Amino acid sequence: MPEGDTVWHTAAKLREHLVGRTLTRCDVRVPRYATVDLTGQVVDEVISRGKHLFIRVGPASIHSHMKMDGSWRVGERAVRIDYRARIVLEAGPIRAVGYDLGVLEILERDQDDAAVAHLGPDLLGEDWDPQVATANLTADPDRPLAEALLDQRVLAGVGNVYANELCFVTGHLPTAPVSAVSDPQRLLVRAREMLWLNRFRWNRCTTGDTRNGRQLWVYGRAGQRCRRCGTPINYDGSGDRVTYWCPTCQR
């Protein structure tokens, strides 16, 4: 599930392979932009902003958002192109393919910031400001904590996995109001630490134990025993977002 750390890592990989290279192929498989051809243009930058990714090529900016199931793959020409591909970029021997991207659009480069102007401070960005993020989080004290953490206008980068894990490590139910958090800035500093430590991993870890099956506290562990107290983990998938929690450790 792509969250801020995954997008940051993806941008780093694309940057490593593409920046400074001239595109030799540009195949956009979205009807609105199917005629766009950036062949011959140089890739200048690849940056992430929360869960958004921008590939800046000549006068254009390729903006993508992976949503739930999207991904980018980059490497030698062996990178597969199939029905899931929404865009194919090649630069000599290098091929980058965007699969099942929830958002893919070609923007004017000097105006691409407008696509992310609504976002709060980016947990992995140069604009990260815990005081601004704290003010955003506490602006609605009655809002459920997990819902507030997932609101990208509050802070950018937290997805469902981190929202559930942060609620666990701070001892709050996902449905607890923001006002229940005694030190919200400390919670947000913890959020940044989690994403920062995972920014070079594809398989994120919040427990400190990177062994397979031991990386997460509650997410995806419905019915399994809590790693702290042994109580079975609860699960609710009835809403727009799934939630996991320990009924003993979280109040």
TrEMBL record:
Q: What is its EC number?
A: 4.2.99.18
User: Which keywords does this chain's UniProt record carry?
Assistant: DNA damage, DNA repair, DNA-binding, Endonuclease, Glycosidase, Hydrolase, Lyase, Metal-binding, Multifunctional enzyme, Nuclease, Zinc, Zinc-finger
GO BP annotations of the record are: base-excision repair
Write down the superkingdom of origin: Bacteria
Q: Which Gene3D superfamilies match?
A: 1.10.8.50, MutM-like, N-terminal
Give the FPG-type domain ranges: 217-251
For this protein, the record's InterPro entries field holds: DNA_glyclase_Znf_dom_DNA_BS, Endonuc_Nei2, FPG_cat, FPG_N, H2TH_FPG, Nei2_N, Ribosomal_uS13-like_H2TH, Znf_DNA_glyclase/AP_lyase
**Per the record, what are the reactions this protein catalyses?**
2'-deoxyribonucleotide-(2'-deoxyribose 5'-phosphate)-2'-deoxyribonucleotide-DNA = a 3'-end 2'-deoxyribonucleotide-(2,3-dehydro-2,3-deoxyribose 5'-phosphate)-DNA + a 5'-end 5'-phospho-2'-deoxyribonucleoside-DNA + H(+)
Q: What class of enzyme is it?
A: lyase
Q: Which residues form the Formamidopyrimidine-DNA glycosylase catalytic domain?
A: 2-87
* SMART domains the UniProt entry points to: Fapy_DNA_glyco, H2TH
Q: Which PROSITE patterns match?
A: FPG_CAT, ZF_FPG_1, ZF_FPG_2
Which GO molecular function annotation, any one, does this entry have? Answer: zinc ion binding
Q: Which cofactor does it need?
A: Zn(2+)
Please report which protein family the annotation says this sequence is part of.
Belongs to the FPG family.
Listed PANTHER family: ENDONUCLEASE 8 (PTHR42697:SF1)
Name the chain's protein. Answer: Endonuclease 8 2
Q: What is the protein's species of origin?
A: Mycobacterium kubicae
Q: What taxonomic lineage is listed for the species of origin?
A: Bacteria, Bacillati, Actinomycetota, Actinomycetes, Mycobacteriales
